Amino acid sequence: MDGLCGPGGFAQEYLTEAVRIIQQLDTDAIERAVGLLAETRKRGGRLFVLGVGGGAANASHAVNDFRKLAGFEAYTPTDNVSELTARINDEGWPAAFEGWLRGSRVTADDLLLVFSVGGGDLERGVSPNLVHALRYGRERGARILGGIVVPPVNPARITPHTEAMQAVLWHLMVTHPRLKTAPARWESLQ
Question: Where is the SIS domain positioned along the sequence (predicted)?
Fold first, then answer.
């Protein structure tokens, strides 16, 4: 043991924090989010998933699951590298996601799902692309789903816990009885 953690070491400490986070999640808010997703799908709206860094990787995976397991028409700007980099080059990073939503013709029937550790902050230059995209989506009447839902149990590990919980939550959603339309391949073999 290196003296940095108690009995069980770092692994025990990290996993204990993850359990504490899961126990503190607002299940009523999660059920409301599922309801919003179900309403969006029912009216033929599309799901646009936005994220940067680890959130971008999560967005790509989530789009796959929402399409394949829950029957959504779902997209993320980070899956089209050529368009994204052209927009960054031509319009700048702050406008890249907004331009992508504009090109996608986002409407009031659509839903924006945001994967972010702390949201955006224009004054501090934090995720300005998300701030501009959400502002544009709001102007178009799209609904927005996201926010800081992961309780910070350890300030030194906010990012890894938040990004891990994003995966827990979208997997919960795509397998929720109100949203799931198809079994995952492994489960279909059982």
Answer: 37-190
Question: Counting beta carbons within 10 angstroms of the beta carbon of residue 181, is it exposed (0 to 12), middle (13 to 18) or buried (19 or more)?
Answer: exposed
CATH-assigned architecture of domain 9-183: 3-Layer(aba) Sandwich (3.40)
Tens of pLDDT along 47-96? Answer: 999 999 999 999 999 999 999 999 999 999 999 999 999 999 999 999 99
- Using the structure block, give the residue that is written with the tokens 């391949």: 185
Run of H or E residues at 137: helix 128-139
Query: Taking CA 132 as the corner, what is the angle to CA 131 and CA 134, rounded to the nearest 5 degrees?
Result: 65
Judge whether residue 6 has pLDDT over 70: no
Tokens matching residue 50: 């936005």
Distances (CA, A) of 21 to 126, 134, 137, 177: 24, 26, 30, 23
Distance CA 174, CA 69 (A): 6
Helices 128-139 & 93-103 angle (0-180, nearest 10)? 30
Residue 115's DSSP bridge partners are: 51
Task: Tell me the residue length of the chain.
Answer: 190
Q: Where are the domains of the chain?
A: 9-183
